[in-house]
Design a protein that fits this description.
Blueprint (H helix, E strand, L loop, with lengths): L4 H19 L30 E5 L4 E6 L9 E8 L2 E9 L6 E4 L4 E7 L8 E2 L3 E3 L4 E5 L4 E6 L5 E8 L2 E9 L6 E3 L4 E7 L8 E2 L3 E3 L2
Antiparallel strand pairs: 1-2, 2-5, 3-4, 3-6, 6-7, 6-8, 9-10, 10-13, 11-12, 11-14, 14-15, 14-16
């Protein structure tokens, strides 16, 4: 069979047309499969951590630090306590919370502190606001016929009871705590306050005024 020149041209044209039609079909692409996978610069799919952990600091005889939420489990949070030194921060210690409330009580000296919690348990890292702290004694007042004081946690503490007068505050008596036993003062009705001398990590302290009626 002989193939004419014209029929050869027609066959070539038909081949080109078929190729063009295939190239324009939906989903067709000239890119290699490797090039159609993830390219640099495209956002990657990753898990996003939830909001930062919550930090609470409460003063008193000890600095109480609580990290939440507590639902992550007892003793689950680790953190670093930092103390301000001039314009910088120094590490005061590394700790882990205790108990179901996820808190810990720290016997630190007076200063300005902050808590740094690293990312953990799916929560973002967080740094608490600075807090000025000075350890204060635990003073309990009671009594009916006489005023009774209990001051702690130091066993041997110099305590002064003062009474408010028209001229200001007047000393009633100064005594030592002598352990954790109650101190008894026989006084009349009036407005009083308690002063404790500086002792160990505790600076001198003056309580809020309180009323006493025997």
């Amino acid at each position: 069979m002989k193939v004419s020149k014209s029929s050869g041209i027609s066959a070539a044209l038909i081949g080109c047309m078929l190729g063009a039609m295939i190239a324009t079909l939906p989903g067709a692409s000239a890119e290699p499969m490797a090039d159609r996978q993830v390219r640099p610069g495209l956002p990657a799919v990753s898990a996003t951590a939830t909001a930062p952990a919550r930090v609470t600091m409460v003063g008193g005889p000890l600095l109480q630090v609580k990290v939440g939420p507590s639902q992550v489990g007892p003793g689950a949070w680790t953190f670093t306590l930092e103390r301000r030194s001039g314009t910088s921060w120094e590490r005061a210690g590394a700790y882990r919370t205790k108990g179901t409330l996820d808190e810990v009580s720290l016997p630190v000296t007076a200063g300005t502190y902050r808590v740094v919690v690293p990312a953990q348990h799916g929560y973002q890292a967080t740094t608490s606001k600075p807090r000025a702290y000075a350890p204060t004694p635990d003073i309990k007042v009671s009594g009916h016929g006489a005023l009774e004081l209990k001051v702690g946690p130091i066993r041997d503490w110099q305590v002064t009871l003062e009474r408010k007068t028209d001229q200001g505050w007047s000393k009633v008596k100064t005594a030592k705590t002598r352990g954790l036993k109650r101190m008894v003062f026989t006084v009349d009705a009036g407005t009083y306050r308690v002063q404790t001398a500086a002792n160990g990590r505790f600076p001198a302290f003056t309580s809020k005024p309180f009323e006493f009626v025997p």
